[in-house]
Queue: 2 jobs
Job 1
Amino acid sequence: MDKLIITAAICGAEVTKEQNPAVPYTVEEIVREAKSAVDAGAAIVHLHVREDDGTPTQSRARFQECEEAIYKVCPDVILIPSTGGAVGMSPEERLQSTDTTPVPEMATLDCGTCNFGDEIFDNTMPTMRAFGKRMLERGIKPEYECFEMGHLDTILTMARKGEVPGAPMQFNFVLGVPGCTAATVPNLCWLVQNIPAGSTWTCTGIGRHAFTMAAPAIVMGGNVRVGFEDNLYLERGVLAKSNGELVDKVVRMAKELGRPVATSAEAREILNLKK
Ligand code: KMH
Ligand code: ZN
């Protein structure tokens, strides 16, 4: 079994300081949270950015500023900028995060339209084709975000047609978003059983499912994502003071379960990244 890759989704687009004062908005806060996660053992940071007032943005300039600032303190970290942005953003707006220099090693590619709480997260086939084309042209490895069981079939069909990058594919099964596939072990098993041999995968459990889904992912040979984007609590009723605290809990779980944690360099090998 490969070492465990931990991803920290440090910011997200939806969570606010009202919910947890440690949610980062400014560049300095985003750097602080990235560093806390990497220091605790995260090999990857999944990045959304905000305006200083917390408004989610996909501004190329803001991504550039944040990525440069993060690399200054975490030079080895793998950054996975979001192309999902926030619900309601246009595809063109969302794709700006792939325009930074250097070209991102990876970026998210969301695998279908779905409910997202009371809203609709819009990922039509033409949108996904455009995102796949961009990533093929620029050599960006997608992290395929599946929020629904059907998203897996959708993206595998697109990969077979050459519309999005193919093997080896990296999937992130995001389970427990209200309105989407539930965070259960049988659902995770079904998804894992249906990915092509040689693929890698991560599981993200939303809200109270963050750590109950981390545990099966650790023992099944998958990888784990945690962070404020997905969950604000260290345990029931206890807000996490930093993303580092959430990562540290996964590191402790992995240690108890006997699975070593990957550095960023080791994660690059496991994910077949070139850098
Ligand atoms: N903010 C969500 C609507 C991604 O980063 O690609 C979508 C999201 C997925 O966070
Ligand atoms: Zn995201």
Job 2
Amino acid sequence: MLKLKSYVSGKWHDGEGKTATLLNPATEEPLAEASTGGIDFSAALQHARTVGGPALRAMTFAERAEILQGIYEVLFANREEFIELSIANGGNTRNDAKFDVDGATATLLAYVDIGRELGDRHIINDGETEQLGRTPRYGGKHIYTTMCGAAVHINAFNFPAWGMIEKAAVGLLAGMPVISKPATSTALLAHRMTEIIVQSGVLPDGAFSFIAGSVGDLLDHLAPQDALAFTGSGDTAAVLRALDAHTRRSVRVNVEADSLNAAIMGPDIESGDETWQMMLNEVTNDVRQKAGQKCTAIRRVFVPPGQIRNFVEALKERLEDINIGNPADANVRMGPLVSRSQLEDVAAGIDVLGNQATQVSGTLQPDNLTAVDSGKGFFLSPHLFQVDDVAAAPIVHEREIFGPVVTVMPYEDAETLINMCAQGGGSLVSSVYSDDRDFARELLTGLAPYNGRLTHGSAKVAGISPGPGTVLPGLVHGGPGRAGGGEELGGARGLSFYMQRTAIQGYSALLDKFFPR
Ligand code: NAP
């Protein structure tokens, strides 16, 4: 069987000892093994810091942008192979696989543009020189310079391509060497991408390392100039935040975690309106796409009481129409969950939700699967729940069920609606569907403190909006509270995580010479 290797200290390493097995979640066929036993992670970090870091920091943003362009070209040239791996190891349909793979390359291109725009410089100015004394001779300004350590990236299972590449694009453009660790269960695609990037020689030695399996003692060696960016569950995030590296050595930790994203129908929307249809499409898509295993997927749907029956009926019909099965079959629209433990976790969540909400549709053991050996694969059908008395169903705001599960519930007015959304504890994204501008403004303003991103669906953008589930490189990805409190992407804003902001004061004219706009 294929043994995944780690690429650290400028070489490929076979891990020793206990291995984890990667499966095809539709057939349960073993695809590969991974292990990191015996790897010297302290040396790996040191190689990145002392070899990759100086090489990247010597380059301008424009030069680093050309490296990203090189990565883009080799990845794009192998797109078909990546899509096949994503279908096999991720349980993704072809469209879901493209979403991950193309999301990765599109993000790279966005950061190529940002790097070219930043151009021939190594430093970013933050604002203008401010006068500090009575005369303009004495002033101060803020600059960003690249930190001198290594960036460790730990990613979740659901986006092995996009997750790895979006973090790497930002870290590398900022000038930091990257050590990337995908979730082990779906590491096949990220591993193959790394092989291709390494073979291409586009990156300087030490600029990119890859861990196939557990991080071992790597995080114990993190030092103050290093950074750790994590995407995954809130539980793992809590472990990482408790590391000495963070609590005692102040290593920056960025967390993207769970999220109970909301979709809201405005009181102005009538069944069958263009905006109604848009909302129905986006909710359906978020339940179906990647079998609901998307951090941005809509979990809670708030609808005016008078529209509940119609919306639930329409959504039920759409969800029951989804063809589930082995995504190797082109007719399949929704694949399995990614692993047995994921399936068990989602089934347990459905069980708990069922105690407080009415199940409208969905089954744990779908019997009409396409192209599946009987009894094999981690399948379940889309689950739709309805809640009539929201006060009696606190669970909808408490538990993220990371699968194809959505709950529809009523709201009375904007104020209680905002309060209910806030009970989710902080979200990555929420969406408001309304053509009533006063309602939309009130909601977008009221929801903003509880969300990293908001989308406004309206007849003006129906047909051109990518929906709330698509993370965009130019906009911030992250959210407060439960969502982790982190922030990634957001165009050039994303670079600041890998750079130190320093205030510098002195003779204003000289500061402007040293650090021109
Ligand atoms: P997870 O179990 O927390 O794992 C995430 C990553 O952390 C994996 O690479 C995992 O490696 C690693 N990991 C686990 N324990 C660790 C430890 N003690 N030290 C260092 N690394 C450790 O999460 P998941 O099941 O992959 O992902 C599902 C969760 O991620 C969901 O809750 C979802 O909401 C969240 N998510 C959030 C976003 C976002 O952008 N906010 C995006 C996607 C997913 P192994 O695989 O080797 O265990």
